[in-house]
Design a protein that fits this description.
The chain is mostly helical. Helices cover 62% and strands 0% of the residues. The chain has six helices and no strands.
Length: 115
């Protein structure tokens, strides 16, 4: 990601750049949820609570607390995730974990079970 291993180490250690708290939260959303879930008002409080825990744990690795900044990053990550229409990123068509009955996703899942 970065030009030198030292630069990568420093960014990783300080949670800066691509290792920022926002990126951590957004990556978590990409791995665990679908945008439709965030549009459902009944699910949003539980998702926000989970994101708060993920962000808090990430901050604690540095020994810092920033509740206001964390709340802002959660809102920003959720808004960006909802707006993502798959036009960039996620080129492997693995958006979230829901399969929605799509043949390609079901086929890929079955292929992964061959072990």
């Amino acid at each position: 990601m970065y030009s030198t291993k030292e630069q990568d180490f420093q960014k990783r250690k300080a949670h800066k750049g691509s290792y920022s708290r926002y990126n951590k939260l957004y990556s978590y959303l990409m791995a665990e949820y679908e945008p439709a879930q965030l549009k459902d008002p009944a699910q949003c409080p539980a998702i926000e609570d989970m994101l708060y825990q993920v962000g808090h744990d990430y901050d604690m690795q540095l020994g810092k607390q920033d509740p206001e900044g964390l709340a802002a990053d959660i809102k920003k990550a959720m808004a960006s995730f909802i707006e993502n229409d798959k036009s960039h990123g996620d080129t492997g068509d693995n958006f979230g974990k829901m399969h929605n009955g799509r043949f390609d996703n079901i086929k890929r899942t079955l292929e992964d079970l061959h072990w």
